[in-house]
Amino acid sequence: MKDAAIHVENVSASYRKNTVLEGVTFQVQPGSLTGIVGPNGAGKSTLLKTMLCLHPALTGSVTFFNQPFKKIKKRIGYVPQRGSVDWDFPTNALDVVTMGLYGQIGWLKRPSKEHKQRAWEALKKMGMEEFANRQISQLSGGQQQRVFLARALVQDADIYFMDEPLAGVDAATEQAIMTILKELKMKGKTVMVVHHDLQTVTDYFDHVLFLNGKVIAHGNTNHVFTKENLAKTYGGSIQWVKEGSQHVVHSIE
Ligand SMILES: Nc1ncnc2c1ncn2[C@@H]1O[C@H](COP(=O)(O)OP(=O)(O)OP(=O)(O)O)[C@@H](O)[C@H]1O
């Protein structure tokens, strides 16, 4: 067995007295594309934040390629939930993407022409080059999401965490983002994505982590994405609907 890209052991987290995560343990292999699913309030965003030291863990440990976050943070990319970002911050799309390079540039140094060129290329890859000089507050939600993806890409990380990158984007943006995520996986990168659309889990992800305060199930999508695990995770808040000859799952939260 290869060294785990991510090893989470017995992690618990809370907001004041409200325990949100309890005894979360799992390992993720390099080169996998994992969907994190669970109902609203299950702790999915908190899990990402705790792994990235943006929220304190009460217990447990998290390592990436056997190293703590602090030692390896330049190799980790994060796309936060769109709603958690201050989009009024006065900056343009190209500068947001260039920020993804600050680990390499150094915070007090100015980006070189080559850095700007790399940022521009990442924007281009996301089909956003014509918006390079546009203030981020003047982009649509899907365009903002593409800019954040470009920022993560330019970083050329080994591990990526993305919090609902597909929320509220149109079908074309969804396909563009999924193409990029599958390319990252093909290059051997490890990607974990918080995801809400249960219908696309089997198409999009090779692994799935069912979370509801604790890990309900985790593993290869073909083995783990079952009615039983969906019921254990969502309780009564899912429905099976007959579409043609198949039953398809819908979340009704
Ligand atoms: N900053 C905060 N202060 C207090 N409670 C919080 C805070 N952030 C989240 N919570 C609570 O922690 C729980 C888990 O929230 P979290 O955002 O991690 O869930 P989630 O699974 O990502 O939910 P969703 O699918 O709705 O985005 C919820 O009950 C939420 O109300």
UniProtKB/TrEMBL annotation:
<dbReference type="InterPro" id="IPR003439">
    <property type="entry name" value="ABC_transporter-like_ATP-bd"/>
</dbReference>
<keyword id="KW-0547">Nucleotide-binding</keyword>
<protein>
    <submittedName>
        <fullName>Manganese/zinc/iron transport system ATP-binding protein</fullName>
    </submittedName>
</protein>
<dbReference type="InterPro" id="IPR017871">
    <property type="entry name" value="ABC_transporter-like_CS"/>
</dbReference>
<keyword id="KW-0813">Transport</keyword>
<dbReference type="InterPro" id="IPR003593">
    <property type="entry name" value="AAA+_ATPase"/>
</dbReference>
<comment type="similarity">
    <text>Belongs to the ABC transporter superfamily.</text>
</comment>
<dbReference type="Pfam" id="PF00005">
    <property type="entry name" value="ABC_tran"/>
</dbReference>
<dbReference type="GO" id="GO:0005524">
    <property type="term" value="F:ATP binding"/>
</dbReference>
<dbReference type="InterPro" id="IPR027417">
    <property type="entry name" value="P-loop_NTPase"/>
</dbReference>
<feature type="domain" description="ABC transporter">
    <location>
        <begin position="6"/>
        <end position="238"/>
    </location>
</feature>
<dbReference type="InterPro" id="IPR050153">
    <property type="entry name" value="Metal_Ion_Import_ABC"/>
</dbReference>
<keyword id="KW-0067">ATP-binding</keyword>
<dbReference type="GO" id="GO:0016887">
    <property type="term" value="F:ATP hydrolysis activity"/>
</dbReference>
